[in-house]
Amino acid sequence: MINFIRKSFSTTAYKSVIWITIISVAGLSSLTGLFKRFSGFGAQTIARVNGYDVSLLEFKRKIDEEERRIRYIKEQFGDFAPFILQSLGLTANPEEHALQALIQDYLLLDCGNALKLRISPQYVTKKLHDPVFAAQSLGDLVPPYLFDSLGVINHAALVKHLQRQGMSIEAFEEAVEHALMRSLVLSLIVGGTYVPRSQIKEQFIREHSVKKFSVISVPVEKYLKKQSEVEIPMEALRSFYDTQNSMFKRYALPEKRSGTVWKIPSSSYNITIPDAEITSYYNQHKHEFVETPEAGKNPPTYKKLEAVRSTIKEKLRAERFSKIFLADAQRIISQSSQDNALFTEFLNNKKAQSQSLNNIVLNASLPIKKLFELSQGKKGYGIDKGAGFIVELTTVVPASFEKLEDIKHKVEQDYRKEQALRALQEDISTTRRTLLNHETIQAVAKKLGGSVETLELTQKNKRNS
Protein backbone atom coordinates (compact mmCIF):
# COMPACT_ATOMS: atom_id res chain seq x y z
CA MET A 1 0.00 0.00 0.00
CA ILE A 2 2.83 2.40 0.94
CA ASN A 3 4.61 1.68 -2.34
CA PHE A 4 1.40 2.37 -4.26
CA ILE A 5 1.00 5.70 -2.51
CA ARG A 6 4.59 6.69 -3.21
CA LYS A 7 4.27 5.76 -6.87
CA SER A 8 1.05 7.73 -7.07
CA PHE A 9 2.76 10.78 -5.60
CA SER A 10 5.24 10.77 -8.46
CA THR A 11 2.38 11.43 -10.88
CA THR A 12 0.62 14.64 -11.86
CA ALA A 13 -1.62 14.39 -8.79
CA TYR A 14 1.29 14.81 -6.39
CA LYS A 15 2.69 17.66 -8.49
CA SER A 16 -0.51 19.52 -7.69
CA VAL A 17 0.33 19.23 -3.99
CA ILE A 18 3.84 20.52 -4.70
CA TRP A 19 2.27 23.58 -6.33
CA ILE A 20 0.79 24.44 -2.92
CA THR A 21 4.30 24.90 -1.58
CA ILE A 22 5.35 26.88 -4.66
CA ILE A 23 2.40 29.24 -4.26
CA SER A 24 3.24 29.79 -0.59
CA VAL A 25 6.90 30.54 -1.42
CA ALA A 26 5.90 32.86 -4.26
CA GLY A 27 4.09 35.06 -1.77
CA LEU A 28 0.65 36.52 -1.51
CA SER A 29 1.34 39.32 -3.99
CA SER A 30 0.95 36.90 -6.90
CA LEU A 31 -2.52 35.95 -5.70
CA THR A 32 -3.78 39.48 -6.17
CA GLY A 33 -2.73 39.31 -9.82
CA LEU A 34 -4.44 35.95 -10.15
CA PHE A 35 -7.65 37.43 -8.76
CA LYS A 36 -7.53 40.23 -11.35
CA ARG A 37 -6.77 37.79 -14.14
CA PHE A 38 -9.95 35.83 -13.47
CA SER A 39 -12.16 38.88 -13.02
CA GLY A 40 -13.79 38.18 -16.38
CA PHE A 41 -15.31 34.88 -15.31
CA GLY A 42 -18.63 36.37 -14.26
CA ALA A 43 -20.50 37.34 -11.13
CA GLN A 44 -20.41 33.91 -9.47
CA THR A 45 -16.86 32.72 -10.30
CA ILE A 46 -13.68 34.51 -9.26
CA ALA A 47 -10.95 31.99 -10.18
CA ARG A 48 -10.28 28.61 -11.76
CA VAL A 49 -7.83 26.06 -10.30
CA ASN A 50 -7.00 23.00 -12.44
CA GLY A 51 -10.43 23.19 -14.04
CA TYR A 52 -12.34 23.78 -10.76
CA ASP A 53 -14.33 27.03 -10.51
CA VAL A 54 -13.91 28.97 -7.28
CA SER A 55 -17.25 30.60 -6.55
CA LEU A 56 -17.80 34.07 -5.14
CA LEU A 57 -19.83 32.55 -2.27
CA GLU A 58 -16.93 30.28 -1.28
CA PHE A 59 -14.57 33.24 -1.44
CA LYS A 60 -16.82 35.32 0.85
CA ARG A 61 -17.10 32.46 3.38
CA LYS A 62 -13.35 32.01 3.41
CA ILE A 63 -12.84 35.78 3.87
CA ASP A 64 -15.17 35.65 6.90
CA GLU A 65 -13.11 32.77 8.31
CA GLU A 66 -9.81 34.66 7.79
CA GLU A 67 -11.28 37.84 9.30
CA ARG A 68 -12.30 35.89 12.41
CA ARG A 69 -8.78 34.47 12.71
CA ILE A 70 -7.10 37.87 12.34
CA ARG A 71 -9.61 39.49 14.72
CA TYR A 72 -8.96 36.76 17.32
CA ILE A 73 -5.18 37.36 17.15
CA LYS A 74 -5.68 41.12 17.52
CA GLU A 75 -7.99 40.64 20.51
CA GLN A 76 -5.62 38.18 22.22
CA PHE A 77 -2.29 39.94 21.65
CA GLY A 78 -3.22 43.64 21.50
CA ASP A 79 -0.24 45.83 20.56
CA PHE A 80 1.87 42.75 19.80
CA ALA A 81 -0.65 41.42 17.26
CA PRO A 82 1.22 42.87 14.23
CA PHE A 83 4.36 40.97 15.24
CA ILE A 84 2.38 37.74 15.73
CA LEU A 85 0.70 38.15 12.35
CA GLN A 86 4.05 38.86 10.73
CA SER A 87 5.62 35.75 12.30
CA LEU A 88 2.74 33.66 10.91
CA GLY A 89 3.24 35.11 7.45
CA LEU A 90 -0.09 36.96 7.67
CA THR A 91 -1.13 40.50 6.88
CA ALA A 92 -4.37 42.25 7.75
CA ASN A 93 -5.69 41.61 4.23
CA PRO A 94 -8.07 38.63 4.57
CA GLU A 95 -8.86 38.56 0.83
CA GLU A 96 -5.34 37.45 -0.08
CA HIS A 97 -5.24 34.72 2.58
CA ALA A 98 -8.73 33.53 1.63
CA LEU A 99 -7.78 33.17 -2.04
CA GLN A 100 -4.56 31.34 -1.17
CA ALA A 101 -6.47 28.95 1.11
CA LEU A 102 -9.05 28.22 -1.60
CA ILE A 103 -6.34 27.53 -4.18
CA GLN A 104 -4.69 25.09 -1.76
CA ASP A 105 -8.02 23.40 -1.08
CA TYR A 106 -8.73 22.83 -4.77
CA LEU A 107 -5.21 21.57 -5.49
CA LEU A 108 -5.64 18.95 -2.74
CA LEU A 109 -9.07 18.04 -4.16
CA ASP A 110 -7.58 17.65 -7.63
CA CYS A 111 -4.87 15.43 -6.18
CA GLY A 112 -7.50 13.20 -4.53
CA ASN A 113 -9.48 12.87 -7.76
CA ALA A 114 -6.32 12.04 -9.70
CA LEU A 115 -5.63 9.27 -7.16
CA LYS A 116 -9.23 8.05 -7.81
CA LEU A 117 -10.15 8.35 -4.13
CA ARG A 118 -13.84 8.03 -3.30
CA ILE A 119 -15.72 9.19 -0.20
CA SER A 120 -18.64 6.89 0.66
CA PRO A 121 -21.92 8.31 2.04
CA GLN A 122 -21.44 6.16 5.15
CA TYR A 123 -18.05 7.78 5.80
CA VAL A 124 -19.55 11.25 5.37
CA THR A 125 -22.34 10.44 7.83
CA LYS A 126 -19.87 9.04 10.36
CA LYS A 127 -17.65 12.12 10.22
CA LEU A 128 -20.59 14.52 10.43
CA HIS A 129 -21.53 12.87 13.73
CA ASP A 130 -18.02 13.42 15.10
CA PRO A 131 -18.07 16.88 16.78
CA VAL A 132 -14.29 16.89 17.28
CA PHE A 133 -13.57 16.23 13.60
CA ALA A 134 -16.22 18.75 12.57
CA ALA A 135 -14.66 21.45 14.75
CA GLN A 136 -11.16 20.78 13.37
CA SER A 137 -11.91 20.26 9.67
CA LEU A 138 -15.42 21.60 9.04
CA GLY A 139 -15.50 24.64 11.31
CA ASP A 140 -16.72 27.02 8.61
CA LEU A 141 -19.39 24.54 7.44
CA VAL A 142 -20.63 22.95 10.69
CA PRO A 143 -20.33 25.34 13.68
CA PRO A 144 -20.40 23.69 17.15
CA TYR A 145 -23.86 25.04 18.08
CA LEU A 146 -25.46 22.75 15.45
CA PHE A 147 -24.71 19.67 17.60
CA ASP A 148 -27.05 18.61 20.39
CA SER A 149 -25.99 17.03 23.69
CA LEU A 150 -25.78 13.58 22.05
CA GLY A 151 -23.40 14.75 19.31
CA VAL A 152 -26.14 14.66 16.65
CA ILE A 153 -26.57 17.52 14.19
CA ASN A 154 -29.85 19.39 14.67
CA HIS A 155 -31.35 19.27 11.18
CA ALA A 156 -33.58 22.32 11.63
CA ALA A 157 -30.66 24.39 12.95
CA LEU A 158 -28.51 23.20 10.04
CA VAL A 159 -31.13 24.29 7.50
CA LYS A 160 -31.34 27.76 9.09
CA HIS A 161 -27.55 28.02 9.16
CA LEU A 162 -27.32 27.13 5.46
CA GLN A 163 -30.06 29.63 4.60
CA ARG A 164 -28.08 32.38 6.30
CA GLN A 165 -25.01 31.29 4.35
CA GLY A 166 -26.96 31.23 1.06
CA MET A 167 -26.08 27.55 0.64
CA SER A 168 -28.25 24.62 -0.51
CA ILE A 169 -28.24 21.17 1.12
CA GLU A 170 -26.68 19.72 -2.06
CA ALA A 171 -23.87 22.30 -2.02
CA PHE A 172 -23.34 21.63 1.69
CA GLU A 173 -23.02 17.87 1.14
CA GLU A 174 -20.57 18.46 -1.70
CA ALA A 175 -18.51 20.85 0.44
CA VAL A 176 -18.35 18.29 3.28
CA GLU A 177 -17.27 15.58 0.82
CA HIS A 178 -14.55 17.87 -0.55
CA ALA A 179 -13.30 18.64 2.99
CA LEU A 180 -13.08 14.93 3.77
CA MET A 181 -11.26 14.31 0.49
CA ARG A 182 -8.64 16.94 1.35
CA SER A 183 -8.22 15.49 4.83
CA LEU A 184 -7.73 12.01 3.36
CA VAL A 185 -5.14 13.24 0.86
CA LEU A 186 -3.13 14.90 3.63
CA SER A 187 -3.31 11.69 5.68
CA LEU A 188 -2.01 9.68 2.72
CA ILE A 189 0.88 12.10 2.27
CA VAL A 190 1.85 11.62 5.91
CA GLY A 191 1.45 7.83 5.61
CA GLY A 192 3.51 7.72 2.42
CA THR A 193 6.46 9.60 3.91
CA TYR A 194 9.52 7.54 4.83
CA VAL A 195 11.38 8.47 8.01
CA PRO A 196 14.77 6.77 8.67
CA ARG A 197 15.08 4.82 11.92
CA SER A 198 18.02 6.98 13.01
CA GLN A 199 15.85 10.10 12.71
CA ILE A 200 13.08 8.47 14.77
CA LYS A 201 15.61 7.56 17.46
CA GLU A 202 17.03 11.07 17.47
CA GLN A 203 13.56 12.59 17.82
CA PHE A 204 12.68 10.18 20.65
CA ILE A 205 15.78 11.20 22.57
CA ARG A 206 15.09 14.86 21.91
CA GLU A 207 11.48 14.66 23.12
CA HIS A 208 11.62 12.10 25.94
CA SER A 209 15.06 12.19 27.57
CA VAL A 210 15.74 14.24 30.70
CA LYS A 211 17.39 17.57 29.88
CA LYS A 212 18.90 20.41 31.83
CA PHE A 213 18.96 23.86 30.36
CA SER A 214 19.53 27.44 31.42
CA VAL A 215 17.30 30.40 30.70
CA ILE A 216 18.47 34.00 30.54
CA SER A 217 15.72 36.47 31.51
CA VAL A 218 16.29 39.99 30.22
CA PRO A 219 13.95 42.82 31.35
CA VAL A 220 12.38 44.57 28.34
CA GLU A 221 12.04 47.74 30.39
CA LYS A 222 15.75 48.43 29.91
CA TYR A 223 15.30 48.59 26.14
CA LEU A 224 12.10 50.63 26.39
CA LYS A 225 13.80 53.16 28.68
CA LYS A 226 16.65 53.54 26.22
CA GLN A 227 14.23 54.11 23.33
CA SER A 228 12.26 56.67 25.34
CA GLU A 229 15.36 58.87 25.34
CA VAL A 230 15.67 58.83 21.54
CA GLU A 231 14.02 61.58 19.51
CA ILE A 232 12.04 60.15 16.58
CA PRO A 233 12.34 62.00 13.24
CA MET A 234 8.95 62.80 11.70
CA GLU A 235 10.00 61.00 8.49
CA ALA A 236 10.66 57.77 10.42
CA LEU A 237 7.36 58.09 12.27
CA ARG A 238 5.46 58.68 9.02
CA SER A 239 7.16 55.67 7.39
CA PHE A 240 6.29 53.45 10.37
CA TYR A 241 2.68 54.68 10.35
CA ASP A 242 2.31 54.01 6.60
CA THR A 243 3.93 50.55 6.80
CA GLN A 244 1.75 49.44 9.72
CA ASN A 245 -1.39 50.57 7.89
CA SER A 246 -0.49 48.96 4.56
CA MET A 247 0.51 45.62 6.11
CA PHE A 248 -1.73 45.31 9.17
CA LYS A 249 -4.28 48.17 8.98
CA ARG A 250 -3.09 48.91 12.50
CA TYR A 251 -4.61 52.38 12.75
CA ALA A 252 -7.71 51.65 10.72
CA LEU A 253 -11.16 52.90 11.63
CA PRO A 254 -13.75 50.27 10.65
CA GLU A 255 -16.71 50.97 8.42
CA LYS A 256 -19.72 52.19 10.39
CA ARG A 257 -23.36 51.87 9.43
CA SER A 258 -26.63 53.31 10.70
CA GLY A 259 -30.18 52.14 10.24
CA THR A 260 -33.24 50.71 11.98
CA VAL A 261 -34.10 47.19 13.08
CA TRP A 262 -37.64 46.02 13.77
CA LYS A 263 -38.06 42.90 15.91
CA ILE A 264 -41.24 40.83 15.49
CA PRO A 265 -42.04 38.38 18.34
CA SER A 266 -43.24 34.90 17.46
CA SER A 267 -46.25 35.41 19.73
CA SER A 268 -47.68 37.88 17.20
CA TYR A 269 -48.46 34.96 14.86
CA ASN A 270 -50.63 32.93 17.30
CA ILE A 271 -49.25 29.62 16.00
CA THR A 272 -50.83 26.44 17.41
CA ILE A 273 -49.42 22.92 17.09
CA PRO A 274 -51.94 20.00 17.05
CA ASP A 275 -51.29 17.06 19.39
CA ALA A 276 -51.20 14.70 16.40
CA GLU A 277 -48.27 16.62 14.94
CA ILE A 278 -46.40 16.45 18.26
CA THR A 279 -46.95 12.68 18.46
CA SER A 280 -45.81 12.23 14.87
CA TYR A 281 -42.61 14.18 15.49
CA TYR A 282 -41.90 12.16 18.65
CA ASN A 283 -42.28 8.84 16.81
CA GLN A 284 -40.05 9.96 13.93
CA HIS A 285 -37.30 11.50 16.08
CA LYS A 286 -37.03 9.19 19.07
CA HIS A 287 -33.23 9.27 18.85
CA GLU A 288 -33.41 12.84 20.20
CA PHE A 289 -35.06 11.63 23.42
CA VAL A 290 -32.81 8.79 24.59
CA GLU A 291 -32.63 8.38 28.36
CA THR A 292 -29.17 8.45 29.99
CA PRO A 293 -27.64 5.15 28.76
CA GLU A 294 -27.16 2.46 31.40
CA ALA A 295 -24.23 0.05 31.21
CA GLY A 296 -25.15 -3.07 29.26
CA LYS A 297 -28.67 -1.85 28.49
CA ASN A 298 -29.67 -2.57 24.88
CA PRO A 299 -31.84 -1.40 23.19
CA PRO A 300 -31.90 2.11 24.72
CA THR A 301 -34.92 3.47 26.56
CA TYR A 302 -36.64 6.70 25.54
CA LYS A 303 -38.21 9.51 27.50
CA LYS A 304 -41.99 9.42 27.68
CA LEU A 305 -43.92 11.62 25.27
CA GLU A 306 -45.51 13.61 28.10
CA ALA A 307 -42.07 14.45 29.49
CA VAL A 308 -40.97 16.06 26.22
CA ARG A 309 -44.28 17.29 24.83
CA SER A 310 -43.67 20.96 25.68
CA THR A 311 -40.15 20.79 24.24
CA ILE A 312 -41.43 19.37 20.95
CA LYS A 313 -44.26 21.90 20.82
CA GLU A 314 -41.88 24.83 21.21
CA LYS A 315 -39.52 23.43 18.61
CA LEU A 316 -42.28 22.89 16.03
CA ARG A 317 -43.74 26.30 16.82
CA ALA A 318 -40.35 27.94 16.25
CA GLU A 319 -39.90 26.10 12.94
CA ARG A 320 -43.40 27.05 11.80
CA PHE A 321 -42.86 30.69 12.81
CA SER A 322 -39.53 30.81 10.97
CA LYS A 323 -41.06 29.50 7.76
CA ILE A 324 -44.08 31.85 7.86
CA PHE A 325 -42.17 34.95 8.93
CA LEU A 326 -39.42 34.61 6.33
CA ALA A 327 -42.06 34.35 3.59
CA ASP A 328 -43.97 37.33 5.02
CA ALA A 329 -40.84 39.47 5.36
CA GLN A 330 -39.76 38.79 1.79
CA ARG A 331 -43.23 39.68 0.50
CA ILE A 332 -43.72 42.85 2.56
CA ILE A 333 -40.24 44.22 1.74
CA SER A 334 -40.94 43.69 -1.96
CA GLN A 335 -44.31 45.44 -1.65
CA SER A 336 -42.91 48.31 0.44
CA SER A 337 -40.79 49.48 -2.48
CA GLN A 338 -44.09 50.50 -4.13
CA ASP A 339 -46.19 51.40 -1.07
CA ASN A 340 -44.42 52.02 2.24
CA ALA A 341 -47.81 52.26 4.02
CA LEU A 342 -48.14 48.47 3.66
CA PHE A 343 -44.84 48.04 5.46
CA THR A 344 -45.93 50.31 8.34
CA GLU A 345 -49.25 48.46 8.61
CA PHE A 346 -47.44 45.10 8.76
CA LEU A 347 -45.18 46.32 11.58
CA ASN A 348 -48.16 47.62 13.57
CA ASN A 349 -50.15 44.41 13.11
CA LYS A 350 -47.21 42.30 14.27
CA LYS A 351 -46.43 44.51 17.29
CA ALA A 352 -42.91 45.14 16.03
CA GLN A 353 -40.43 46.89 18.31
CA SER A 354 -38.08 49.31 16.54
CA GLN A 355 -34.51 50.18 17.52
CA SER A 356 -32.19 52.75 15.99
CA LEU A 357 -28.70 51.60 15.02
CA ASN A 358 -26.25 54.50 15.02
CA ASN A 359 -22.68 54.21 13.73
CA ILE A 360 -22.53 50.46 14.36
CA VAL A 361 -19.42 48.42 13.49
CA LEU A 362 -19.70 44.86 12.23
CA ASN A 363 -20.12 42.27 14.98
CA ALA A 364 -21.55 38.77 15.51
CA SER A 365 -25.17 39.95 15.94
CA LEU A 366 -27.31 38.55 13.11
CA PRO A 367 -29.24 41.82 12.52
CA ILE A 368 -25.93 43.73 12.38
CA LYS A 369 -24.40 41.19 10.00
CA LYS A 370 -27.46 41.53 7.77
CA LEU A 371 -27.13 45.34 7.95
CA PHE A 372 -23.60 45.06 6.56
CA GLU A 373 -24.81 42.93 3.64
CA LEU A 374 -27.25 45.60 2.40
CA SER A 375 -26.94 48.45 -0.07
CA GLN A 376 -27.90 51.89 1.19
CA GLY A 377 -31.68 52.33 1.46
CA LYS A 378 -32.38 48.56 1.23
CA LYS A 379 -34.03 46.24 3.75
CA GLY A 380 -33.10 42.72 4.87
CA TYR A 381 -34.62 40.17 7.23
CA GLY A 382 -33.93 37.04 9.25
CA ILE A 383 -34.48 35.10 12.48
CA ASP A 384 -32.54 35.86 15.66
CA LYS A 385 -33.05 34.23 19.08
CA GLY A 386 -36.52 32.97 18.23
CA ALA A 387 -37.80 36.32 16.93
CA GLY A 388 -38.01 37.72 13.43
CA PHE A 389 -36.29 40.92 12.41
CA ILE A 390 -36.30 43.37 9.51
CA VAL A 391 -33.41 45.80 9.20
CA GLU A 392 -33.01 48.86 6.95
CA LEU A 393 -29.71 50.55 6.08
CA THR A 394 -29.80 54.36 5.98
CA THR A 395 -26.21 55.64 6.03
CA VAL A 396 -22.67 54.29 5.59
CA VAL A 397 -19.44 55.79 6.92
CA PRO A 398 -16.64 54.14 4.89
CA ALA A 399 -13.60 52.61 6.58
CA SER A 400 -10.67 54.99 6.94
CA PHE A 401 -7.44 55.52 8.86
CA GLU A 402 -6.90 57.66 11.93
CA LYS A 403 -4.87 60.77 11.07
CA LEU A 404 -1.27 60.61 12.23
CA GLU A 405 -1.57 64.09 13.72
CA ASP A 406 -4.45 62.91 15.95
CA ILE A 407 -2.69 59.80 17.29
CA LYS A 408 0.94 60.89 17.13
CA HIS A 409 1.61 59.99 20.80
CA LYS A 410 0.23 56.45 20.35
CA VAL A 411 2.22 55.90 17.13
CA GLU A 412 5.38 57.10 18.89
CA GLN A 413 4.81 54.56 21.69
CA ASP A 414 4.29 51.76 19.16
CA TYR A 415 7.40 52.81 17.26
CA ARG A 416 9.50 52.76 20.43
CA LYS A 417 8.18 49.30 21.38
CA GLU A 418 9.12 47.93 17.98
CA GLN A 419 12.60 49.46 18.12
CA ALA A 420 13.07 48.04 21.64
CA LEU A 421 12.07 44.55 20.49
CA ARG A 422 14.43 44.78 17.52
CA ALA A 423 17.29 45.80 19.80
CA LEU A 424 16.46 42.86 22.08
CA GLN A 425 16.46 40.47 19.12
CA GLU A 426 19.85 41.77 17.97
CA ASP A 427 21.27 41.21 21.46
CA ILE A 428 19.86 37.67 21.48
CA SER A 429 21.57 36.94 18.15
CA THR A 430 24.84 38.31 19.50
CA THR A 431 24.39 36.20 22.65
CA ARG A 432 24.13 33.02 20.57
CA ARG A 433 27.41 33.78 18.84
CA THR A 434 29.05 34.59 22.19
CA LEU A 435 27.95 31.29 23.71
CA LEU A 436 29.40 29.42 20.72
CA ASN A 437 32.74 31.03 21.63
CA HIS A 438 32.49 29.20 25.00
CA GLU A 439 31.74 32.24 27.15
CA THR A 440 29.76 31.23 30.24
CA ILE A 441 26.03 31.87 30.27
CA GLN A 442 26.40 33.71 33.59
CA ALA A 443 28.86 36.15 32.00
CA VAL A 444 26.53 36.71 29.05
CA ALA A 445 23.56 37.35 31.38
CA LYS A 446 25.60 39.91 33.30
CA LYS A 447 26.40 41.80 30.08
CA LEU A 448 22.68 41.86 29.19
CA GLY A 449 21.65 42.95 32.66
CA GLY A 450 19.60 39.79 33.08
CA SER A 451 19.43 36.73 35.33
CA VAL A 452 20.00 32.98 34.82
CA GLU A 453 17.76 30.13 35.91
CA THR A 454 18.69 26.45 35.47
CA LEU A 455 15.79 24.03 34.90
CA GLU A 456 15.37 20.31 34.37
CA LEU A 457 12.86 19.14 31.76
CA THR A 458 11.43 15.62 31.94
CA GLN A 459 8.54 14.00 30.10
CA LYS A 460 6.38 14.51 33.21
CA ASN A 461 7.19 18.24 33.21
CA LYS A 462 6.21 18.47 29.56
CA ARG A 463 2.84 16.83 30.17
CA ASN A 464 2.07 19.26 33.00
CA SER A 465 3.16 22.36 31.12
Architecture overview:
The chain has 465 residues and is an alpha+beta fold. The protein folds into three domains: 2-191, no CATH class; 197-253 and 403-464, no CATH class; 256-398, no CATH class. Helices cover 57% and strands 13% of the residues. The protein is built from 20 helices and ten strands. The protein has helices spanning 2-8, 12-26, 29-37, 56-77, 81-87, 94-114, 121-128, 131-137, 155-165, 169-191, 197-208, 221-228, 234-248, 275-284, 305-336, 340-349, 366-371, 408-436, 441-448, 459-464; strands spanning 45-49, 52-55, 211-217, 252-253, 256-264, 353-360, 379-384, 387-397, 400-401, 451-457. The chain has a four-stranded antiparallel beta sheet. Strands 1-2 form a two-stranded antiparallel ribbon. Strands 3-10 form a two-stranded antiparallel sheet. Strand 1 and strand 2 form a beta hairpin. 16% of the residues are buried. Mean pLDDT is 80; it is low at 1-43 and 459-465.
